[in-house]
From TrEMBL, chain A:
GO BP annotations listed: post-embryonic development; reproductive structure development; tryptophanyl-tRNA aminoacylation
Subcellular location: Cytoplasm
InterPro entries to which the protein is assigned, alphabetical: aa-tRNA-synth_I_CS, aa-tRNA-synth_Ic, Rossmann-like_a/b/a_fold, Trp-tRNA-ligase
Protein name, per record: Tryptophan--tRNA ligase, cytoplasmic
Organism taxonomic ancestry: Eukaryota, Viridiplantae, Streptophyta, Embryophyta, Tracheophyta
Keywords: Aminoacyl-tRNA synthetase, ATP-binding, Cytoplasm, Ligase, Nucleotide-binding, Protein biosynthesis
Its EC number(s): 6.1.1.2
Any single Pfam family the record assigns to this protein: tRNA-synt_1b
Protein source organism: Eleusine coracana subsp. coracana
GO CC aspect terms: cytoplasm
Protein origin, superkingdom: Eukaryota
GO molecular function: ATP binding; tryptophan-tRNA ligase activity
Keyword Ligase tagged: yes
Family the entry assigns: Belongs to the class-I aminoacyl-tRNA synthetase family.
TrEMBL record, chain B:
Compositionally skewed regions (Polar residues) per UniProt: 119-142
Sample GO molecular function, one term: aminoacyl-tRNA deacylase activity
Domain of life: Eukaryota
Gene name in the database record: gb09951
Protein name per Swiss-Prot or TrEMBL: YbaK/aminoacyl-tRNA synthetase-associated domain-containing protein
UniProt xrefs under Gene3D superfamilies: YbaK/aminoacyl-tRNA synthetase-associated domain (3.90.960.10)
Region (Disordered): 106-170
Length: 371, 256
């Protein structure tokens, strides 16, 4: 009875896609989003839902919704139902501040969250998990706290409304009711379950085991008595990303793989022209004849995320695919779009002071948070 | 638009709310009432202060109120009171005024979430009759009656405005961006440039894609304004903090 050869076993492993808190890797052919939706017990955000959001918020839906970039949800319909009845909810998102360098990929969930805040006119809590980074990375507590504050500045520069936004770092804020909720949550999850979800091993420090409740607690409004009183009925909507991979893998550790919010226009132009993988053909003649392969073209993917005008995007895609538009032209447009975005971010970021960070992070009342 | 006592009483009758009405000389404080009335006159300054009704009210048959004037008292049951409050779009909240919760850093006032977050539209002062004999008391006993009741947020359907609430517009960045763009575009840019180019404003605006322009300009304007708002808020926050730290409540001006 032959056992499977090691080669065969590895082959099987490579085909499976992996999505967990610390690793996202695609099987053959890229991330299977349908499988993902199933695996996480979510539903697709369909056109009807996007329309409904547009109607309820009396404004056009965000391009991430229009283009299916935010594509799955759990209980979003219920949240919309309660909102339609006149009830409120709050938003919760966060970041693990492991590096000072933020790239455009990091900004995407924050851009979408800002849209949700403006559209629904609801408050937002942003958790900076400096404790998580201390546990998982080789950093001191002081460094983690410092990175949290630095990241807070870039988050503020995304344009969140100070009257509706509370940013907090775990090291500064955990305690009181928040801590009570953490302990209550930790009583509900067995070690076995945690190991199953997070893949902990017996050699891992116990801090890692006890971290997940910290990230669950902000979903409960009673964790924030200064904002919501003892109200435990307020619902919470959590926008999040699955850390996009595919062949556009952006990594904070490879400076050329991503556009950073600190990049100059020259650096952006250089990165796009030299490192963005093109789906165009090798020669102009061939390109005019065959057109571009949009599936592997990185500039088109970036434009999908960052070019606002739907009509222009469609026109570029069509012209490029048919070979009438060249790679150079597509990249030029992308450089324009990204430079504009990054410049705007940098202008705002330059105005963020330590005092402004203090104000956003103060456990203060937000009387206008639903106004 | 203010309401008169007669309009209020007529409305109660419309809603088929039973009440008994007593005319009496003006009284300004509870102490001046007959001491055998065990319950409190409810007084709420519309919009600014919030007075919670005692939980003892909840099951009582006889609650006493001034119907927009202090020379009449009406008596009705708490369930009829609820009926009236709901009819004006306010969700009643019954709380225990005798409970004394600990209020501190982690425990804000436990009724804070019941306080309406928006400032209600102020109406005219309700009618107050003062007999000459009581004129001297007037300044010390501000018993203006009103009908403001706290709106319960979060749950409850007391809020008639559902989807798009009116925000506090002075701090509404989106509104400000649109105002600036419209003012700049229509009042200045279109009129001045069309003059220079010898076109009418209509001709010029039809040549420009104003909506497209708005789409380009708005994110930039919005980013700048949002940072200005945050910087202003921060300055105010600091100032308030320092005031309390150095001067306590004495440092804050009194509204009286």
């Amino acid at each position: 009875m032959a056992t499977a050869t090691p080669a065969a076993e590895t082959e099987v492993k490579e085909e499976e896609q992996v999505v967990n808190p610390w690793e996202v890797s695609a099987g053959k052919g890229g991330i299977d989003y349908d499988k993902l939706v199933d695996q996480f017990g979510c539903q697709r955000i369909d056109a009807a839902l996007v329309d409904r959001i547009a109607r309820l918020t009396a404004r056009p839906p965000h391009r991430f919704l229009r283009r299916g970039l935010f594509f799955a949800h759990r209980d979003l319909s219920e949240v919309l139902d309660l909102y339609e009845r006149g009830e409120k909810f709050y938003l919760y998102t966060g970041r693990g501040p492991s590096s000072e360098a933020l790239h455009l990929g990091h900004l995407i969930p924050f851009m979408f969250t800002k849209y949700l805040q403006d559209a629904f006119k609801v408050p937002l809590v942003i958790q900076l998990t400096d404790d998580e980074k201390f546990l998982w990375k080789n950093l001191t507590v002081e460094e983690c706290k410092r990175l949290a504050r630095e990241n807070a500045k870039d988050i503020i520069a995304c344009g969140f409304d100070v009257e509706r936004t509370f940013i907090f770092s775990d090291f500064e804020f955990v305690g009181g009711k928040f801590y009570e909720n953490m302990v209550k949550i930790s009583k509900c999850v067995t070690c076995n379950k945690a190991v199953g979800i997070f893949g902990f091993s017996p050699e891992d420090p116990i801090g890692k085991y006890s971290f997940p409740p910290v990230q669950a607690a902000p979903s409960f409004p009673s964790s924030f008595p200064h904002l919501f009183g003892g109200n435990n009925q307020l619902r919470c909507l959590i926008p999040c990303a699955i850390d996009q991979g595919e062949n556009t893998k952006m990594s904070a550790s490879d400076p050329n793989s991503a556009i950073y919010v600190t990049d100059t226009p020259k650096e952006i132009k250089n990165k796009v022209n030299r490192y963005a993988f093109s789906g165009g053909q090798d020669s102009i003649e061939l390109h005019r004849k065959l057109g571009a392969n949009l599936d592997v073209d990185v500039p088109i993917k970036y434009l999908n995320f960052f070019l606002e005008d739907d009509d222009e995007l469609e026109r570029i895609k069509t012209e490029y695919k048919e070979g009438r538009m060249l790679t150079g032209e597509v990249k030029q447009r992308l450089v324009e779009v990204l430079s504009g975005m990054v410049a705007r971010h940098q202008r705002a970021r330059a105005q963020v002071t330590e005092e402004m960070v203090d104000a956003f992070m103060a456990a203060r009342p937000l009387p206008n948070m639903f106004g | 638009m203010g309401y008169t006592k007669d309009q209020l009483l007529a409305r109660l009758q419309e809603l088929k709310i039973d009440f008994t009405c007593y005319d009496h000389p003006v009284v300004l404080t509870v102490e001046e009432q007959d001491k055998k009335h065990r319950l409190y006159v409810v007084s709420a300054l519309e919009g600014t202060k919030v007075d919670m009704k005692n939980q003892g009210f909840k099951s009582k048959q006889s609650c006493y109120f001034h119907p927009l004037t202090n020379d009449v008292t009406i008596v009705l049951s708490s369930s009829n009171l609820d009926k009236f409050l709901i009819s004006i779009g306010k969700q009643p909240a019954y709380v225990d005024l005798e409970a004394s919760p600990v209020v501190g850093k982690d425990n804000p006032p436990d009724l804070a979430h019941l306080v309406p977050s928006d400032t209600p539209i102020s109406s005219e002062q309700p009618v107050q009759n003062v007999t000459p004999a009581n004129a001297t008391h007037q300044n010390n006993a501000p018993k203006e009656t009103g009908k403001a009741k706290p709106k319960v947020q979060g749950k409850g359907a007391g809020n008639s405005q559902s989807k798009v609430d009116k925000p506090n517009s002075a701090t509404d960045v989106e509104k400000c961006v649109n105002d600036v763009f419209d003012t700049f575009m229509s009042r200045f840019f279109l009129s001045e440039v069309s003059k220079k180019l010898n076109l009418t404003t209509e001709e010029l605006s039809s040549k420009l894609d104003l909506d497209g322009l708005r789409g380009l300009v708005a994110p930039e304007l919005e980013s700048t304004m949002m940072i200005l708002k945050s910087a202003s808020y921060t300055a105010g926050f600091e100032a308030g903090f320092e005031t309390m730290l150095n001067n306590g409540l004495k440092g804050c001006p009194s509204r009286k």
